[in-house]
Amino acid sequence: MRGGRWRGEEKRRWSARGHRHRPRGRRRPGHRPERQVRGCGPGGGCQAAAQLRGGELPGFYYDPDKNRYFRLLPGHNNCNPLTKESIQQKAMESTRLRLLEEEEKQNKVRSEIDCNYPLCSVSTDDEMVHELKVNCMQRRKIEIHSPDSSVAGTNNFKIIVADVACERIFTVNDVEHGGCKYGIINLSGLGKESLTVEMYDNLYFTNRKVNSVCWASLTHPDSHLCLMGIAETPGCASLLPASLFSSTNPGDRPGMLCSFKISTAWSCAWCLNPQADNCFSTGLTRRVLVTNVVTGHRQTFGTSSDVLAQQFATQTPMLYNGCRSGEIFSIDVRQRNRKGQSWKAIRLFHDSAVTSIRLLEAEHYLMAADMAGKIKLWDLRTAKCVKQYQGHHNEYAILPLHVNEEEGLLTAVGQDCYTRIWSLQDARLLRTIPSPHPASKDAIPSVVFSSRLGGRRGVPGLLMAVKQDLYHFSYN
Fold this sequence. Notes:
Layout: H1 2-16, H2 45-52, E1 60-63, E2 68-71, H3 84-112, H4 117-121, H5 126-135, E3 139-141, E4 143-145, E5 156-162, E6 168-174, E7 180-186, E8 196-202, E9 209-216, E10 224-230, E11 235-241, E12 258-262, E13 267-270, E14 279-284, E15 287-292, E16 298-302, E17 307-312, E18 318-323, E19 327-332, E20 344-349, E21 354-359, E22 365-370, E23 375-379, E24 384-389, E25 401-404, E26 409-413, E27 419-423, E28 429-433, E29 446-453, E30 459-466, E31 469-474
Parallel strand pairs: 4-8
Antiparallel strand pairs: 1-2, 3-31, 5-6, 6-7, 7-8, 9-10, 10-11, 11-12, 13-14, 14-15, 15-16, 17-18, 18-19, 19-20, 21-22, 22-23, 23-24, 25-26, 26-27, 27-28, 29-30, 30-31
């Protein structure tokens, strides 16, 4: 009786703790039951719940190939390879490789069928001609020659900027031990048959990071370079002669024209208007500094936000500025310093930080890009957005726009490392070019598009600098 009473009480306690007796079935030798994610039974309850949440289950990753959910751990846990960042990077790399494979197949077809043949039948439609040319561009690697064999191909490209004639490109390369290396590449050897360029480096200026660079026409067109960077604290603005980088004799190297310390510099621009001759502007933290390099006179305009993008107009002495706050405003540089906002002539607004602005030739329109991935064309006469170019990707990087009105094209590189080309006229996305290297923060391509790469008799196309390589996409 006591034994039976004890067993009955024990069963009730066992049942009260939520345990139930379940008969154990026979297992096949070597059989291991598949572990299910808690709450995801064989009936597909978690799949239905995930579909209601747009295919996502908090804390889990769904693998479509295995048709299973896997638990995610925080990104700092090195023992678990499944993190949201690693999953996104794996998906992006898979897409990039697939697009590169598709391009290789298309290039084989293009080599068999002459791309110029269909242009004859549509010669009256310029838009279709440009679209066909863009789609027929093929990537070829450029061989870079340098007097110092240890220089070429040793550091990653960060920025490339072409002069007005597109005869030279100024390069900024990241150095492994910190700082930047500057150089000039001569494009005169770039032709339809030859893919060789000459590079000259100056190894002296290697101690600062460069945020922005532009060509300056002081003694003659594109005679100097404006460099804005950080030499720890504070920053530094320098105006250097271009001959400094191509002089083979170190004793003949001219010194910098001007150099002064400033707060963190985000952008720079050179003025080509005669009414504000010999002036360059620097976009700083909450102010704009305009400097006359001959007289040394400076004008300061206070702003409510960091100035990330700048460009001077050529027909009027106006300076256009794009801010971190999303505001775009213009300044008449002939006026004296004023307090407040009364000196702002034109004011436009984006919803996110403006990273690049480009005036079109007639200077009635302005193209602007922001950190939300929006690219807008503004009519400066009405202060209204007239077009938007979809597909650009950006969240935090300062990325430039490249406008070629002669060919009617807009080019931009996204934070996802894809180069996209749009039609200026109807804002259609004509082509998306994947990067030859895996996408990463330090491998965003820098590009130049021109109808005359190498000068008047040069070749049209797209130059792409990524990692240690330089590529040419022919635009025939």
